[in-house]
Amino acid sequence: MTSLADIRQTYQKFELLESSVAANPYDQFGQWFQQALHSEVPEPTAMTLATADAQARPSARTVLLKGYDPRGFVFYTNYESRKGQELTANPQASLLFFWEPLERQVRIEGPVTRLADDESDTYYNSRPLGSRIGAWASPQSRPITHEALARRVSDLTASLGEHPARPPYWGGFRVQAQRIEFWQGRPSRLHDRLVYTLNDRGSWALTRIAP
Fold first, then answer.
1. Own/partner pairs for 56-59, CB < 8 Å, 24+ apart?
2. How confident is the model over 45-73, as pLDDT tens digits?
3. Which pLDDT tens digit goes with each residue over 172-204?
4. What is the value of pTM for the model shown?
5. Contacts of 3 (CB under 8 A, 6+ apart)
6. Segment (H or E) for 135
7. The dihedral of CA 38, 42, 43, 44: what is its sign?
8. Do strands 46-52 and 72-78 pair parallel, antiparallel, or not at all (unpaired)?
9. How far apart are CA 114 and CA 94, in angstroms?
């Protein structure tokens, strides 16, 4: 068997220099995100969402980015799910994008707020009908049998019709970034790491940190 210690990847496609990055992290994220969209990244919007409960016990899972602008990074979920309950009890989160074909990571940290109802309504109504029904049918993170879930989907498909309203327990969260790190893989594990930190004046400071 191959030893895990012998599994290694050499990163050498790009470098990340202070002279080449944008003045604010949202512009820099936009540049990298567009490159990810047009490269071989299989799920460019996939990001690991890390949360912690009121006792500081962490958990992580993959969710999909559904929007970003200078206000923050948006995803949607069931507010009664494990992540929804943890974000209600402890409204802080970290996001991680790993775009392996580009040898890049982006780490985002900051407080979390719920989206306004009209924003969640707009996104919910843009989803395929099956996904809208699914939001009603799934008691996310709670025990259920395969058969019971199938029955709920069938019953709700019949009762809700073609234009179901958004469930009151389902909607969006926005991570309001206070720290964003851009990581570019480099040879010999001497990776480039540039960190934008939001200061008390509302402007961004850029720092290189050691790999």
1. 56/90, 59/83, 59/86
2. 999 999 999 999 999 999 999 999 999 99
3. 999 999 999 999 999 999 999 999 999 989 999
4. 0.93
5. none
6. helix 129-137
7. negative
8. unpaired
9. 15
The pair of three-digit structure tokens given for residue 65, joined into one six-digit string: 């980015």
Answer for the pair 198, 181: CB distance below 8 angstroms, yes or no. Answer: no
For 96, which DSSP code?
E
What size, in residues, is the chain? 211
To the query of whether residue 107 is one of the catalytic residues in this protein, the response is: no
**Torsion of the alpha carbons at 172, 31, 101 and 43, rounded to the nearest 10:** 20
Per-residue exposure over 58-88, b if at least 16 CB sit within 10 Å of its own CB, e if not? eeeeebebebbeeebbbbbbbbebbbbbbbe
Structure tokens at 87: 């974000």
Domains of the chain: 12-126+167-208 (2.30.110.10)
β-strands 204-208, 58-64 pairing: unpaired
Instruction: Tell me which of 189, 193, 201, 208 is the catalytic residue.
Output: 189
Residues 58, 134, 49, CA angle at the centre, nearest 5°?
20
